[in-house]
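In full, the data.
>
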Amino acid sequence: MLRYLVPVPYCYRVSHDVPGGFRLGYVPGVMPGKWVRIWGQRRPDVPLTLVEMTAATALERVRDGDVDAALARPPAGAEPASLGLALIRLYDEVPVVVVPAEHLFTVADEVPLADLADETVLLPGDDVLGAVLPGAVADYRPPTTGDAVELVAAGAGVLVVPQSLARLHHRRDVVYRPLAGGPVSTVGLLWNEPTTELVDEFIGIVRGRRPGSSRGRDAEVPKRSARQKAADRRAARHARGEVPPRRSRPPRRGRR
């Protein structure tokens, strides 16, 4: 299902049917709004299409060319060569434990990983962490993270997810706390090689490059000396008619 994450201006849409343009995939919990807004400012001539993908199918859809690039969670420790894709790791997500609102963990600011040993841990079918956790894994595996959060609210167990997913599925009858020593997931930008011009443009945006940056491809422009800079300033003033008349050099002392 496709849905809007942020108000959508004319420069980008959430759809599969936009011809041309730049197609950016994203998985649940990832918020591409900031980068998309910058794209709209820099490339208003190129519509950006947001495509929501599941965590399980994201990498395959990038390989198949369904999108030009995707903001997704690569498997922990995976290298680009093993994925068959180019990858830039953008940031690590904070792991949290989701518990019922009346749970003992709610009185703590942070929960040590070892404290899960006495808990029943829910493992959803779309788990993105792939980690072995302390505690007993529930016999029933809910299909999705959303389903697992519902079971947490019913008191069936606790759930460990990235904080972004806990926020996405937040409800009043559950609470989440940071999990100290918990498994960390990474959000990265993935795309197929060779890198296209539009993908390179988006890479520049997520890396914070300024508009018009050389992107490291062109030879560096040699720095001008102070004399050259002064000569350039004089030429600019002369072109504007601002050059004062040149004063004669005063005679040296001791000479008449």
Observations:
- The radius of gyration is 28 Å.
- The chain has two domains: 12-93+186-206, 95-183.
- The chain is about 25% helix and 20% strand.
- The longest helix spans residues 226-239.
